Amino acid sequence: MNNSEANQTNIRSKEAYPHEKRNLIVFALNQIVMRFGWMFKSESVVIPAFIDTYTSSGTIRGLLPLILRIGQSLPQFLVAQRVARMPKKQAFFVFTGFGFAIPWCVLSLILGVTDWSANVIVATFLVLCAVHWLAVGCNHLANGTLQGKLISPEKRGRLLAYSNIIGCTISIGLAFYLLPRWLSDNAAHYTVLFNATAISFGVAALVSFWFKELPSRPQRNAPFFRFLGDALLLLRYDRNFRRFAIVILLFYAIWPLFPHYTVYGQRTLGLVPSGFVALIVAQNASNAVGAGIMGNIADRSGNRLVLRILILISACMPLLAIGISRMPSGAQFYWIVFALMGFTPVSARIVTNYTLEIAPQEKHPQYLGVMSLFQAIPLFVSPLVGALIETLAFEPVFISCSVLVSIGFLLTFRLDEPRFNTGI
């Protein structure tokens, strides 16, 4: 591309995405501060350990991914029509951002001022967790549509890279400084952890007030069931989207395992809460490095290649956990599993970015809503996965999930790369 073509591209980008520089900074700040909250309530380390202090049931642990994905996916589909009709998406993004914080604030108060039984605490936690993920689902839809409206495709990978690198680097420093005080072999200070989570999410929502968004022409006010039918018809008429949905269906077969890795390490390698800091640091470090590398690859070579790499990494994760558990000194290397797990937030963003690229802008909410449903389907078997682990042991279930994800990896070679308008 010569200088004249580059200048014309920049002019078109400024016309299509006014105030992009400011909005990039706000998006980055929002995601950086949000990363602190995710670190304090790590779904793969802190939450499973918290649940395990009240119950050792694998079925209860298996409910966590189900609540997570139902909360993330169904609201996206149900509110997609309403979001599509909004001339401005910022207010909805801010409102749902505060929805992140409230459940953790309530939970920290309950843990701090009540003396409820273990069963009541677990039941209350699951309800509050469901509320949190309902807000997350709505917020992710608002985030995707707002980003598709305010940020050009060529800069979304850069946004992912820089915000994750900065956010995860600071999170690592906070983990080293704070978590040894808040996690110990005798007791974990979950009240403080969840309070810090609420504060982080609340500040991230406040930052979102600084977006600069111009009103857009809303879509026609179609009835919900017509909107639903049009969205599902996308699978019939868009062959590449249909293939992508199958890939995601298989890819997300790995997610029901996430709450079980910490408990698996505790039972096979004797991990103790004081060792959880290393797992959280490894997860955030790989998130930062992975976001930097994958974000730049996505901007240069497209999201399809990055998705392929991330699916392969996920397929290797359960096999690596089994292999390390058989090593005499495996406890010293178990952090590697969580380092691979650190790529998970990156993969979620890449899935969103790929969906945004293969969809016309006016249909972004519909495409994102349908994709969220396919992300949810594997999570409905999460309680069953937990029960199978209790019945058959961890290893057979881990290997089965790895095989399913590997099939999804092979199917990525049938996807199109919209960035370059080519096939394989």
Key words describing this protein structure:
424 residues, mainly alpha, Growth Hormone, Chain: A, disordered N terminus
What's the story with the biggest beta sheet?
A: none
Overall morphology = globular
Please name the CATH topology: Growth Hormone, Chain: A
- β-strand amount: under 5%
What report would you give on this structure?
With 424 residues, the chain is mainly α. The protein has a single domain, classed as Up-down Bundle (Growth Hormone, Chain: A), CATH 1.20.1250. It has 18 helices and no strands. Helix 9 (224-237) packs across helix 10 (239-251), helix 10 runs antiparallel to helix 18 (394-411) and helix 12 runs parallel beside helix 15 (344-358). The longest helix is centred in the first third of the chain and has 33 residues, at 118-150. It is globular, with a radius of gyration of 21 Å.
Which SSEs are present, and which pair or pack?
Blueprint lengths: L2 H14 L3 H21 L5 H7 L5 H28 L4 H24 L4 H33 L2 H30 L7 H18 L16 H14 L1 H13 L8 H10 L6 H26 L1 H23 L9 H7 L2 H15 L5 H13 L5 H11 L1 H18 L13
Helix pairs in contact: 2-7, 2-8, 4-6, 4-16, 4-17, 5-6, 5-8, 6-16, 7-12, 7-15, 9-10, 9-16, 10-16, 10-18, 12-13, 12-14, 12-15, 13-14, 13-15, 13-18, 17-18
Short description:
The chain has 18 helices and no strands.
